[in-house]
Write a structure and sequence with these properties.
Elements: H1 5-21, H2 26-44, E1 56-60, H3 62-65, E2 77-84, H4 92-104, H5 107-112, E3 113-115, E4 120-124, E5 128-137, E6 146-150, E7 155-159, H6 161-172, H7 197-213, H8 222-231, H9 239-256, E8 264-265, E9 268-272, H10 279-301, H11 305-316, H12 318-337, E10 342-344, E11 347-349
Parallel strand pairs: 2-5
Antiparallel strand pairs: 1-2, 3-4, 4-5, 5-6, 6-7, 8-9, 10-11
Helix pairs in contact: 1-12, 7-8, 7-9, 9-10, 10-11, 11-12
Length: 367
């Protein structure tokens, strides 16, 4: 998709505004941080049956790499915690059971605990869920790989959450993930402006996914979207260019693939993040990429702000679109008041000459 400079500029402002609107609120993050620290303390404190295993606790997933998005409606976001126990216990289900029993020994956690395939989930209703992943070292020299229990297999699987975070942040921010000893705090909450283009692109992909699939079980996993975006990141100069480039390159990869696309873990190639896809769920993912590309083409060719507003609301939801347009309207009003040049999606206004024309008052979408 090719955009002229004016269209690119205005869509970037709107997409930036949407990104700001889908960040986690500080109050919600602080609440999750407090609960994370409380769970970590309960699991690892002196007197815990797990204390003899010299436990270490650290975050993984979207919270660690800065790609979490604000939940939609009643949706909840997830905070992932790894509990690394320094042991060589052979029985995966025994280790899983030790962690489960410790959580059940807490009056509050016992009432919100849910056993999952590999983790133990604490459901904080209407807010978020905290997933506790038990693990033990894999003892690969110079590696951060771990063994994690799998209830379906009733055995161990190899995982590398720290290695993956280091790979992603190395691409997104140009620096490796910092690993700390023992219990690690959640990373500091960053604003959209402080995040890299890749991190914000992943957030837009996840938000479009959430709206498109609307909770359907065929929704592609966040780690799939994150890995594909990072794998195809080409240091584009703007958010829109990065998003367009990512979708074009993913689409090209889909076209080259005769079977179901594999998305291997870049730090553990034998692990395929897309192994849950079947013919039907993969077909829906393909349609999602195809439709998202087509939507961006329509955005780029639109010359009417009202049409753009409708399209963005359909893609990312009304709430973040309204917020982005409010910001956009304030920018235009400030520029119009200062008599500056304004080039809009619907036409051109000039300033400073005999033919200068002020743009009409801006009304935020949804008002």
């Amino acid at each position: 998709m090719r955009l002229d400079q004016t269209t690119d500029s205005h869509l970037n402002l709107l997409l930036d505004g949407i990104c700001r609107a889908i960040q986690l609120p500080a109050s919600l993050y602080e609440d999750a941080e407090g609960k994370y620290e409380a769970v970590a303390d309960w699991l690892a404190r002196a007197g815990s049956p797990l204390a003899r295993f010299d436990p270490a606790v650290f975050p993984q997933g979207s919270v660690r790499i800065g790609t979490t998005v604000r939940p939609r409606g009643r949706d909840e976001y997830d905070v992932d915690l790894v509990l690394l126990l320094n042991t060589v216990i052979d029985d995966a289900m025994h280790l899983y059971g030790l962690v489960r029993d410790r959580l059940l020994a807490h009056r509050t956690y016992a009432g919100i605990l849910e056993e999952k395939k590999r983790c133990l989930r604490l459901n904080y209703a209407g807010q978020f869920h905290l997933d506790v992943l038990p693990a033990r070292p894999a003892f690969w020299p110079g590696s951060t790989r771990l063994y994690v229990p799998d209830k379906q297999l009733r055995g161990w699987l190899v995982s590398d959450p720290k290695g993956y975070a280091s790979w992603f942040l190395g691409i997104a921010e140009g620096e490796r993930d910092r690993t700390l000893a023992k219990t690690e705090p959640l990373p500091e909450l960053k604003s959209a402006e402080e995040k890299s283009l890749l991190q914000r692109t992943v957030q837009l992909l996840k938000r479009r996914r959430d709206v498109y699939f609307d909770g359907d079980e065929d929704s592609p996993a966040s780690v799939v979207l994150t890995t594909l975006a990072a794998r195809h990141y080409r240091n584009q100069p703007t958010l829109l260019a990065t998003l367009v480039d990512t979708l074009e390159l993913v689409w090209a990869e889909i076209q080259r693939t005769q079977d179901i696309l594999a998305v291997p873990n870049p730090t553990l190639p034998q692990e395929d993040f897309a192994d849950a896809w079947d013919v039907n769920s993969y077909a829906r993912f393909v349609r999602f990429v195809r439709d998202f590309r087509a939507e961006l083409v329509r955005l780029g060719s639109s010359q009417n702000m009202e049409n753009v507003a409708d399209q963005l609301a359909e893609m990312f939801g009304e709430q973040p679109t309204n917020a982005a347009y409010r910001e956009y309207g304030k920018r235009l009003q400030a520029r119009a008041g200062a008599g500056r040049l304004y080039v809009g999606l619907a036409g051109v206004s000039t300033a400073g000459g005999r033919k200068a024309v002020r743009p009409p008052p801006f009304t935020p979408y949804g008002s």
